[in-house]
Design goal:
alpha+beta, 17 strands, 7-stranded antiparallel β-sheet, about 260 residues, 10-stranded mixed β-sheet
C-alpha cells in the first residue's frame, strides 16, 4: 500500500482472475496485459459470479495520508487475495485482502451484494462495503442506489463516502468509528450473479439509474391516478344520469292536459 497526495491516474495493465472451488482452493491467472477491462474475477466451480474493476481505490483513516490500493488490486504485481469471496443464488461477497496474504492483520475491503427478483426482473444490489483490519470490522458503509438488473453491470464515476462525490457510501452509524474512515472508488464497475463469457455486460450508469423502489412507486402512482380518474368519471356520469331521470320524472317534462 502506498500513500498518495493526489488522484492522478495510473495505468491499469493487469488484474487477477480467481477461481474458487468448493474445497476453498484458490487459483489465479493473469489477464491479458493489454486488456482495457481487467477486473477481479471471482468464480465458483468455474462459473463466474463476481466481476469488479476500478481505476483508483483509495482509503484514509482520520487525518492520515490517503492509501492507494490500486496497484495491489490491479497492477502487474498485484498481491490482493480474494480467497474469502463466496457466491450463492441470493447473495455474494467479494473480499479483497491487501498486503501479505499470510499476515492476519492485513487490510480487507469487503463488498456485500444481494440478488432480488422483483416481478419479472431480477436486480443485484451492493448492500454495504466493509473495511476490516486485524480480523475486525472497523467500518461499515451502507450503499445507496448501487444496483442494476442482473443482466447488466453497474458503473459510476465515483463511488465514495465523500460528500463531494454524492456519498453513495454512508457510514452505518455516524457515532461509531465508521465515520473516521473515508473510501473512494474512481470509475467503479461491478457485476454479480449473471455473468457471461467472463466479461462485463452492458453497464447501467449511476447518472441515469432508477431504483426498483422508484420504478415500482411510479407504476403504483400511475395505477392510482388512473383509478382516481375512472372513479371521478363514474361519479360525474352518475350525477348527470340522476339529473336526466329527475328531469324526465318532473311535471314540467309533460304537457298540461286540457280540461
Amino acid at each position: 500500500m502506498k500513500p498518495i497526495q493526489n488522484f492522478t491516474t495510473i495505468p491499469i495493465t493487469q488484474a487477477l482472475n480467481y477461481n474458487l472451488s468448493k474445497q476453498g482452493h484458490l487459483r489465479k491467472r493473469p489477464w491479458n496485459a493489454f486488456s482495457h477491462h481487467s477486473p477481479v474475477h471471482v468464480s465458483v466451480d468455474g462459473i463466474p459470479c463476481i466481476l469488479f474493476w476500478a481505476k483508483r481505490i483509495t482509503i484514509k483513516f482520520k487525518n492520515q495520508t490517503w492509501l492507494d490500493l490500486t496497484d495491489e488490486a490491479f497492477g502487474q504485481k498485484g498481491t490482493v487475495d480474494a480467497g474469502n469471496s463466496n457466491c450463492s443464488d441470493e447473495s455474494a461477497t467479494l473480499s479483497l485482502k491487501f498486503g501479505d496474504g499470510e499476515n492476519p492483520e492485513g487490510l480487507d475491503v469487503r463488498f456485500i451484494l444481494t440478488n432480488d427478483k422483483l416481478s419479472v426482473q431480477s436486480w443485484f444490489s451492493l448492500q454495504r462495503v466493509e473495511i476490516i483490519f486485524n480480523n475486525s470490522v472497523q467500518a461499515t458503509f451502507n450503499a445507496t442506489g448501487i444496483y442494476a438488473p442482473s443482466s447488466y453491470s453497474y458503473h459510476c464515476q465515483h463511488v465514495s463516502s465523500l460528500q463531494r462525490y454524492d456519498a453513495l457510501l454512508l457510514p452505518r452509524d455516524t457515532d461509531d468509528v465508521s465515520s473516521l474512515w473515508e473510501i473512494t472508488f474512481v470509475d467503479f464497475q461491478i457485476q454479480g450473479f449473471s455473468i457471461k463469457g467472463g466479461e462485463f455486460s452492458k453497464a447501467r450508469d449511476c447518472a441515469s439509474s432508477f431504483s426498483p423502489a422508484i420504478l415500482i412507486g411510479l407504476v403504483m402512482s400511475l395505477i392510482l391516478l388512473l383509478a382516481l380518474a375512472s372513479a371521478l368519471h363514474t361519479l360525474i356520469y352518475l350525477r348527470d344520469l340522476d339529473r336526466h331521470y329527475d328531469f324526465i320524472a318532473s311535471p314540467a317534462h309533460f304537457p298540461q292536459l286540457k280540461a
